[in-house]
Every structure is written in C-alpha cells, then in structure tokens.
Amino acid sequence: MTDPASDPLDRLYAYAAWMLGDRQLALDAVRSAVASGSAGPLAPRLAALRTAVFAHAAVRKSTPASVRERLDDTLRLGTSVALRLGPTALRSGVRRLPVLLTSFMQSCLIAAVQSLPPTQREAFVLLVVLGLPEPEVITLQGDTPRGFSSVKTRMLQSLEGYLEPRCGHLHPQNPCQCPNRLQLALDQCFVQLPEHEEPSDAYPSGSFAGLREMFAALPPLRLAATVRAGLA
C-alpha cells in the first residue's frame, strides 16, 4: 500500500480518500488542511486533516449494512465480460486496461472500507493503508493498547466477513473478478478516475493469502505532480 517514504501530501490525500470515499472531497479536505498552516512531516498535518475528515463523517446517514447493499447492487447483480472501450468519455490517459483495472480495484476496496464505522475505518486506514506503527495509531486515536486491540479485531473481522466470500483476489473461485466486472463498473460510473491523481497501471492480478497481503499489493493513491506542487 502506501510507501512510508512517499510524499507526505500523497499520504495525507490517501488518508482523506480512504476515510471519505470521495476523491474530490478528499482533495478539498487536504487543501483546507494545508491552508490552515500545518506543515512539515505527516503527523502535524494529519492532526489538522482529521478534524475536517471527521466533520464530514459525522453527517453521514448511511449504515454499514446499507453501504454493503449499495456496493453489491452496483457491482454484483450482473456480469459483463466484453469490454467496449471504443467511443467513450474516458480521457486517453486512463483508457489502457491495466490502468482501468487498478482504478477499479482501488475504487472497490475504498468503497468496502466505507462500511466500517469511522473509528474502525480510521484505524484500518492508518494501520493497513498508511502502514503506521501500531503505537503511533493508538496515540493518534487517543486509545489504549487493550482498547485498540478490540477495535482492530472488529474492523478486520468485519472486512474479512464481507470480502472473503466475494472478492476474487482472496479466493479464485469467488464470483467477483475484476476483469469480468470492469465493464459493469464503468457502465455504473463506479470507477473513480480523477484528473488530480497520477494513474497507475500496476494492477495486482491473482489472489492473495489474506486481507493484509491484498491491501499491501494495491498501488497507492498518488496526486498528480502539478497538483502536489500546488499544495507544497
């Protein structure tokens, strides 16, 4: 997932995107945090960004069950195998199949993480997506080791319970295979391909031993160089 040595702005953006599930909203939140004057390494900037992110999360009306039902309705009520990438609204830079598959996988897993309650979602994003050490996550969340252990157990059980029977990256026999569902996802306007991101073609095909291994293989979200320069 996110390289600990990567640009702090990319990591801030990844935090906001995975927490909010909306990449434009995430960019807006990062811009607000940067404008507030927080600078330097990740930790002080993250503190300012968390305030904005949790304010957005607090007004959400959706429940974990409704998020999962909506995701299933979008992606799993049909199968579309033939890709029709002829005349399309997709800009030329993202029309290559590996880029589309990577963006689809990113969009799908970000959507699945939205089914976690905010505290569990943040614990997952900090620990698994950003790869922060567990003591640092505990401090950021103002928790205790014992309390965080419970949060971690619940978040992993919840995501595993949803993804393991569905995702082909966890079990090859599962019904949801990215190449077979891509056209359906494109037709539903589900795949997020924001112009403010640098697209990746490093689609991790195949299946993985578990949830952490799958997320570790997923290419991180990165801001386009021009956007990053404008925020620095």
Produce the secondary structure layout.
Elements: H1 8-20, H2 23-35, H3 42-58, H4 64-75, H5 97-113, H6 118-129, H7 134-141, H8 145-163, H9 178-187, H10 211-217, H11 225-231
Helix pairs in contact: 1-2, 1-3, 1-6, 2-3, 5-9, 6-7, 6-8
User: How many helices?
Assistant: 11
Strand content: under 5%
- Work out the number of β strands: 0
Mean pLDDT across all amino acids: 87
Structural class: mainly alpha
Estimate the helix proportion, in percent: 55-70%
**Structural shape:** globular
Mind explaining what this structure looks like?
This protein has 232 residues and is mainly α. The protein has one domain (8-231). 58% of the residues lie in helices and 0% in strands. It has eleven helices and no strands. Helix 1 (8-20) runs parallel beside helix 3 (42-58) and helix 6 runs antiparallel to helix 7 (134-141). The chain is globular, with a radius of gyration of 17 Å. It starts with 7 loop residues before the first helix and ends with a helix. The model has no long low-confidence stretch (mean pLDDT 87).
Task: Based on the model shown, name its key terms.
232 residues, mainly alpha, 11 helices, globular
Gist of the model:
The chain has 232 residues and is mostly helical.
